[in-house]
Amino acid sequence: MINEQLGDYLITKSLGKGGFGSVWEATAEDGATVALKVLNPQVLENSKVVRKFFHEAMILAKLDHPNICRLMEFFPDGENYCIVMEYVKGVELKKLIAQRQGPLPFDPAYNIATHCLDAFQYAHINGILHRDIKPANIMINEDHVPKIMDFGIAKMGTTASHDTAVSMLSIHYVPPERFDRGTEIDVRADIYSLALVFYEMFAGRRPFTATETSQIMFSHMNEIPDPPDKYAEHLPAEISQAISKALEKDPDDRFSDFAEFSRAMQIDEATHDDVTMIFDETLLDPVLDIEAAKAIEVVDDVVAVKKKSPIGLIAAVLAVLVIVGAAAGYFLTKGKGPAGPPPPPPEEIEIGVKNSKGFYEIIYPGDESVMVLIKNGEFTMGADNYSAEKPPQKIYMDKYYIDKYLVSNQQYQKFVESTQYVTDAEKEGSGLVRMGRRWKKIPEASWKKPDGLTEIEGKEDHPVSQVSYNDASSYCQSAGKDLPTEAQWEKAARGPDGNEYPWGASEPDDTTANYDNIIGATTPVTEYEKGQSHYGAQDMGGNVYQWNKDWYATGERAAKNPVGPETGKEHVIKGGSFMEGSESLRSANRDRYPVNYSSFLFGFRCAAKYPLPDDKLEVMKKLSNEKLGAKE
């Protein structure tokens, strides 16, 4: 779009692009520099996205404050729409924090904090809740003055519902009440989020050290953070105490508005001068460098400075060689008759019947479950989003089978009845259940009564839950199978192209997965056909978390059929649950728990080796023929 004209504005530079829209630097007819925000063409038919875009323009039109990015114009452009905003020459606070890798110098940090408090109090007085306060939405200009950005999910009114899923928010800045759909959201939720931003500025770190989604959620709901002056010893007590109060779990224990928060943060001029001098003496560099911060690349908590690397140069050379090689091949064959592509190899014929995705399914003899054959080949495992998921790498997997569906209550009941197995929760007499915003050990909670109150009667086709790793592994072994390794699970979820979610790259919704408390309970294992993976496996995202065979570890994996370390303290779980947002549904997302840990959010599926042993092969052929219509 560079050098294109939108209305009265000439686009000169790209400032960023997201899933729904893009932002461009542009020049107005009078020579002024502005920022243009437009929707991406592929979302224009999504009425919900278009309404949110209009909504953001309406919010900005209502606000006129020196620390809030100003709306200048809103107009249609053909079938698209354009928001014209004040251009802020500066950098995201997120990048400044990442560049420092420690506390910000006190004077600019205090200046940013006081201006932000004033801006959000102004917005609140005008009936606006921001609902997505985070360092990435606060721009800092060259004079170290903040400008509040992105009112895309803001709400008019003093209270708000849970119409915006937690999955649309940055998990590090979500107040605990957002995880309880029965709780009203008001200004105190914004206060909590802003306090988390202040904590990072003054303490140089986040209050919670967790990196996995479910553990971050747990921290927001249950963990009392250390006061920020524990990590910044010269921080005035007034500021440290104010931030701690704003981070109280119960909204009633926080400040009632931003003005009260601001008064609690106030220090006198003498204290300000003394602290600036003492505080900054403890820093390696007491100066905020806006230009240097612009060169920082931030992927969650990972920071890298933009610079050319030898690897990058080698990759560029290799790319050129590939292109040159392709051209050489063309000229060598030209004039010698059409060589044509080699014929495709004949398709391997397997036992079973092809599913809607084109992959073979069988009925496994041990528990008569439907299993999908996962083809051999490479896939991308891991991601750059979080340190626990790194590194993303190509992994080769041999063929294997994996359950198409989660193990159901009915299947588990048959196992218990035939083996007299007793689960870890039953042995202990209790299981973990989330009550409101806290996790509690509930007496009598077990696979028969996952929340400690409701029997599974009538939910025979729901996934079994309140099972530990021990309980899941015992079932699989009894059926002649095993829990999937993390690599087996992730390939079955992501497919050969390394999809972000089992169904592809698009964000989840209520037709693809049971998540974010949309329903508030488990659903039948066959419910979400639209959410099935590349291979046709269902519930690889949402409903209940799933135990994996691997002991938890981080770092590079074996390049072929990785199985994790030989020993450990905790096993991997993956897949998200009906209570959590879209971040937990990402197929690379991972968490870990001890072998005897039971929760009403934990279930499993099994995997099996390929080919099946001879003693199972004939039975499998017969069952598959009877139940799936397979031909022997």
Plain-language structure description:
With 632 residues, the chain is of the alpha+beta class. The protein folds into three domains: 5-86, Phosphorylase Kinase, domain 1 (2-Layer Sandwich), CATH 3.30.200.20; 90-305, Transferase(Phosphotransferase), domain 1 (Orthogonal Bundle), CATH 1.10.510; 377-606, paralog of FGE (formylglycine-generating enzyme) (Alpha-Beta Complex). The chain contains 16 helices and 28 strands. Strands 1-2-3-4-6-5 form a six-stranded antiparallel β-sheet, covered by helices on one side. It has a five-stranded antiparallel β-sheet with strand order 16-17-18-21-28. The chain has a four-stranded mixed β-sheet with strand order 26-25-24-27. Strand 5 and strand 6 form a beta hairpin. The longest helix has 24 residues, at 310-333. The chain is globular and about 80 Å long. The N and C termini lie far apart (58 Å).
